[in-house]
Amino acid sequence: MPESKLEVFLSPGDVVNSVGETKGSALNRIFRVTLYLKGLDGLLELIGGGLLLLVPPNQIGTLVRILTQHELSEDPQDLVANALIIAAHGLTLSASLFGAIYLLLHGFVKVILVWAVLRNFPWAYPWMMAFLLIFIGYQVYQLVVKFSLGMALLTVFDLLILWLTWYEYRMHKSRKPISGK
User: Fold this and answer.
1) What's the pLDDT score for residue 177?
2) Which residues fall within 8 angstroms of residue 53, CB to CB, at 6 or more apart?
3) What is d(CA 117, CA 124) in angstroms, rounded to the nearest whole number?
4) Is the dihedral of CA 85, 91, 95, 97 positive or negative?
5) How far apart are CA 3 and CA 1, in angstroms?
6) What is the model's pTM?
7) Going by C-beta distance under 8 Å and a sequence separation of 6 or more, which residues neighbour residue 60?
8) Which value, to the nearest 10 degrees, does the dihedral of the CA atoms of residues 52, 54, 60, 64 take?
9) CB neighbours of 173 closer than 8 A, spacing ≥ 6?
10) Is the N or the C terminus of the chain less surrounded, counting Cβ atoms within 10 Å?
């Protein structure tokens, strides 16, 4: 006999917190989607960092010119294409190495923490929140030095993930497994 009316709808092994919220709640789904996006971002950073290590800066500049040539022939004032050309032109070996190390470390931390949180390892939640706070602090510094819409949106996204991680951590600590009788 179920202990409550709610347990009639649950299978053994389902997880319920003190207010009856299941793992499939809307906030939990949003949390998981943002984690997958953050994990994908981490994988892209690992790929980008690896490419920065393997491809010399002059070849990156050549590749960027080839990839933006068509767009610039249609619109010589294209903001994105011109920004890419300027960034690639100023890329030095030391900047490339710093970028590679930064992207590899940043991506590695993201992928490991996202994986651990998705696997419900309790230690991962505080670490995820700590690293998000560090990233957000750096992003706010960058916004103060030079505002960019992209950095502002990334900061808002990271703040959302931070709040959802904190919320899920609280729920994770209060969940009680339903026993299979």
Assistant:
1) 56
2) 97, 100, 104
3) 5
4) positive
5) 7
6) 0.70
7) 52, 88, 91, 96
8) -80
9) 122
10) N
Of residues 21 and 42, the one with the higher pLDDT is 42
Q: Find, among 42, 53, 40, the residue nearest to 100 by Cα.
A: 53
Extract the tokens encoding 121.
């390892």
Give bridge partners of residue 22 from the DSSP assignment.
16
Rounded Cα distance between 61 and 74, Å, is 20
Structure-token match 């009680």, residue found: 176
- Residue found under tokens 């990839």: 67
Phi, psi of 21 (to 5 degrees): -80, 130
Using only C-alpha atoms, what is the Rg of the chain? 22
Cα separation, 152 vs 88, whole angstroms: 23
| Furthest C-alpha separation in the chain | 73
Place of tokens 């939640």: 125
